[in-house]
């Protein structure tokens, strides 16, 4: 009988790696009313929170080594192990030792499992989207479409990528090299947007948000038009410049900025040729409108979009992004307020007096009969939850 026999199994998978997740969820009401907040002293409480944070970026996530020297350092005591031991019991309140010899916190483990599943769902959604694009090419070539396993089956199979799901066809463009032999980072399925040898990239999800990815490569000749790749890179660089400038302008006003380069509206502005001067002009119009209405809210992309349309004077519509989707994507309407309003009008739905916009948006989403695949792609490509 080993020393660990009879202990519970680990509370998170052994490859659970959340080191690319900068943020850990905190259930504030649960913490406020917990025994930890009531039973232990201030020093133990401080150490406990530091240990939760440390455990979030351990592998497996939500675990800690059962070693006083390591725990003292992680809890903020440095090399003063004797001082750590005075507060050890309170700081480790609620932790359990498992049969792998490590300590686990059940609540942190619960949040880690949710994040771990979301991480794989994001990768699976991107895989589905890449295969969807590849199947358009295959349809033109009169080839049978590829089918992607369900999320559960994909996880159980070990996160296979295109080269492993469809080896007979995706290996033909690999230049004679075995794509299956690529090294995976632990628990982080890499992106492989149907690329050639050695070009798969690991995704970053904080989740955050979803970044614009390079367009899917042709699954047969494995070589996209160079001009498309160059255009995409220039588009991303320009949108990032917009975001940086706007965030700086808002910071000068003492506002907390939220402009991001992946916002569909910023991408739409780049496609319309918006210059830095015109952007600043639109921004000052938006600020003047806020001040005239005595509205302390920061300027956001949806609000600024209307003023960009005014300075560019586009022929159609009030919203640049709503009138001319940056990607030609039929789902792009769901990413902007003006697009949602236009879609509602198309479906015969108008926002009622006193109705909050989120409620109106839900009614439009419901009437649009979005498929599960549409919803997954909206989240992956635009960060829109439906």
Description:
- With 386 residues, this protein is mainly α.
- It has four domains: 28-104, no CATH class; 121-223, no CATH class; 225-328, no CATH class; 333-386, no CATH class.
- It has 17 helices and five strands.
- The strands form two sheets. The protein has a three-stranded antiparallel sheet.
- α4 crosses α5.
- It is globular, with a radius of gyration of 25 Å.
- Mean pLDDT is 74; it is low at 171-226, 314-318 and 322-327.
- Residues 170-201 are annotated as: Disordered.
Structurally, how many domains make up the residues? 4
Mean pLDDT: 74
Count of individual beta strands = 5
Helix content: 40-55%
In spatial order, strands of the major sheet run 1-3-2
Question: Rg, please?
Answer: 25 Å
Give the N-terminus to C-terminus distance in angstroms: 52 Å
Strand content: under 5%
* SS-based class: mainly alpha
- The total of helices stands at 17
Could you give a short account of the major beta sheet? 3 strands, antiparallel
Shape summary? globular
What is the N-to-C order of secondary-structure elements (H for helix, E for strand)? HHHEHHEEHHHHEEHHHHHHHH
User: Could you list the spans in which at least 5 consecutive residues all have pLDDT below 50?
Assistant: 171-226, 314-318, 322-327
